[in-house]
Amino acid sequence: MKDISYENRLELSNTYHNIGMIHFYESNNDLALANFQQELDIELEILESTHPNLAVTYHHIARVYGKKQNSKKKLEYFHKELNIRLTTPKLNYSDLAANYHNLSLTYYELLGFVDAFKMNEEALKRACEHLSNDYKFLITLYCDAGAMHFTEKDYDKSLEIYEKAIEIGLNYLSVDDVNLKNIYEILDEIYYKKNDLIDLSSKNPMFSKSNISQTKQFTSLTYYTIGNIFNKMNNYERALAFYQNVHQIELQMLSTNRLYIEKYQDSIEQAKQNLHWSN
């Protein structure tokens, strides 16, 4: 009878879960929360306190609180989820890294920047060690970290981290992939903040508004960064193409920067040498 009772209660718990998920996706948040809570009450009675199913239930409750814009309760339940995931004998690193990522975003919502950075670092640590093929997740984590450093006005660190995101992306995506273009736009904004640059689209007659809408023109520094990443990847042909492109962009500026031009010329020559010796 005890086994039957256990099985029946487990089945009832699963029913509450399924109903909760339906309400969750239909944005009936109060009903979703009520059903997940019923599921949790049963699980707490019949399962061990560290059972992985509890982590899943805590996760869904946290997500409901997120939809209800209750970040403090969301944080509480993501931490409950984490406490169980860390005690599971066989760690699911994908779920653990995602848990840290959710905690990082929630702390960020609550302006707890120190803890947000800490949780992001924990997520990156697990992802780099165990999820290296999940490039989309890695890019997301690096972009989140870059955004947090940007908010803190640490532009140099923000650039460094966004460059890592681009480097990962270029190993899997085309250089003009829309996801990478979004990062290029962020680099532009950082360079504007750092160097008081002038927006090409509004100040340079070489780039009309109609052309901008078709082909986004970035500051020469952003293209130069892409060239440097290709150079780091030993793809000297692509690096050379970008260096030549940034050189032309800077020459077309209304007010050229001599130091930039010299730097770009040096990079072009170095890329040509690297390309020669690699053939």
Automatic annotation (TrEMBL):
The keyword Repeat applies. The keyword Amino-acid biosynthesis does not apply. TPR repeats lie at residues 139-172, 220-253. Gene3D superfamilies: Tetratricopeptide repeat domain. Keywords: Repeat, TPR repeat. Signal peptide: none annotated. This is Tetratricopeptide repeat protein.
